[in-house]
Every structure is written in structure tokens, then in C-alpha cells.
Amino acid sequence: MLATYLIGLREGLEATLVVSILIAFLVKAERRDRLPQVWAGVAAAVALSVGFGWLLSYTSTTLLREYEQRELFEAITSILAVVFVTWMIFWMRRAARSIAGELRGKLTDALALGSIAVAVMAFLAVVREGLETSLIFYSAVQGADINGRPLYALIGGIVTAVAIGWLMYATAVRINLTVFFTVTGVLLILVAAGILKYGVHDLQEAGVLPGLTTLAYDISGVLDPSAWYTALLTGMFNVTPTASVLEVVAWCAYAVPVLFLFLRPAGRKQLPVPQPLEKPRA
């Protein structure tokens, strides 16, 4: 539940910030008449994202009848989710300062084209976050006891993100987004490492990779499966009582370098040192 709440909070806040930038621009430009088109585009993006999530679940539970096929499908979606999470985290860190200007420029162009262009622009600005959320959520809850709670946690994260976005837009409340995206980025990298570990396990279950029974560790005697901390570690970071060698290698091979690159301070370009002017010769 914590992992899915974090996914909803992070992705939801990114989408909320995008929508708030569009709304603020239209209000400032005195083009409130285009707000319905923005909301229509946002609603279409949400609907498509929900449909995509349903399609993933339907494919796994209904269309794929063979056990190996389901495991292979879940492995592929897990790997894709890790790719999207990694890309999203680094993209947001790089584009955070320029995203507002880019959105305003695109919305200005859309206003010149008409109402449909505004709706399409809003749709494209939000649908990426929605599709990522559906894919990551589906991958994060694989193998879990689906009883509705992960979905409620995801919705709770999205609602929290919308509330934070509204407070920042309508009041004087300010949040250090740099710190927020850094902390959630680190946690999401660890979640993604767990998803990749689960994907490798699915590939082993499907017979694509060997070593399913070659365990790297077995701490089932120490890590009580019924304890709350076991549920927290398993649900958040996919730290299981047993794991194969390939699963541990995949977890470490992803988490260590990605965390290093993400937490490494961004290098600053050094300005050329001005050379002293030569005195004119007499």
C-alpha cells in the first residue's frame, strides 16, 4: 500500500502541477472560455489511463491462460515499468525548471489554432503521467493479495497530490518541490529495483532465465512472514525472505548505479576565465 500510495502521490503531483500551470496561464491571459477544453482533455487522459490499466489486468487474468504466458507478460510489463520510472525521474529533474515555459508556449500555439487544439494539448500533457501510473501500479501489485487496498492507496496518493496542488495554486502555501521530488525519487528508485527483481523472478518462472532454485539467501527463519515489517519491506521494496542469485544481482545492478547518478550533484559549467588585457605598446 505504501508503494502504490507513493506512486499515486508522485505521478499525481506531476500531473496536477501540469494542469495548474495550464489553468493559471489561461486565467492570467483572460481566456477562461478555454478552461472547459482543458478539463475535457484532462478527463480524456484519465479515462484512457484507467482503460489501459484495465487492459493490462484483463490481459493477464483472462486472455493469457497458460501459466508461462502470464509470467512472461508480467515480466515484460515489470521491465517496461522500470524503464518508465527511471526515465520519468531523471526527466523531471532535468526539465523541472523549463516545463512551465514549455507548457505556456504550447498552450499559446494551441489557443491560436482553436478549442480542439487546446483539448488535445491538455490531453497530451496529462496522458503520459496517467499511462505511466497505470503501468507502474500494475507492475507494483503483481504477486500481491489484491483485495482493493493497493488501489485505494493509489487513489489516496492521487487525492493527496491534488490537494497539495490546489493549496499551492489557491493559497500562499509553498512546498519545496526540489526536496519533494528528490525524496520521492529515491524511494521510487528502490520501488523500481523491487519491480525489476520481481520481473527477473517472473522470467525464471517462465523458464526464460535459469537459477530459480539457486538462492542467494534464505532469511525466512529470521524474517517472520506474518510480521508488519515483513509486509512493509515486501510491499515497498520487494525484499522477500528468499531470493535467487539473479534477483539479487538485478536489484543491486539497478539500484546502486541509478541511486548514484540520481543523487550526484549536477555539475556546473565553468565559465571561461577572462584573460588580462595586454597593455598597448608604446
Automatic annotation (TrEMBL):
A single MF term (Gene Ontology): ferrous iron transmembrane transporter activity
Domain of life: Bacteria
Protein's UniProt keywords contain Transmembrane: yes
Main location: membrane
Coiled coil: none
Subcellular location per the Swiss-Prot or TrEMBL entry: Membrane
Sorted UniProt keywords: Membrane, Transmembrane, Transmembrane helix
Membrane topology: Multi-pass membrane protein
Signal peptide bounds: none
GO cellular component: high-affinity iron permease complex
Keyword Transmembrane carried by entry: yes
Transmembrane segments: 6-27, 39-60, 72-90, 110-131, 151-170, 177-200, 243-263
Similarity section: Belongs to the oxidase-dependent Fe transporter (OFeT) (TC 9.A.10.1) family.
NCBIfam families: EfeU (NF041756)
Protein name: FTR1 family protein
Organism, scientific name: Actinoplanes aureus
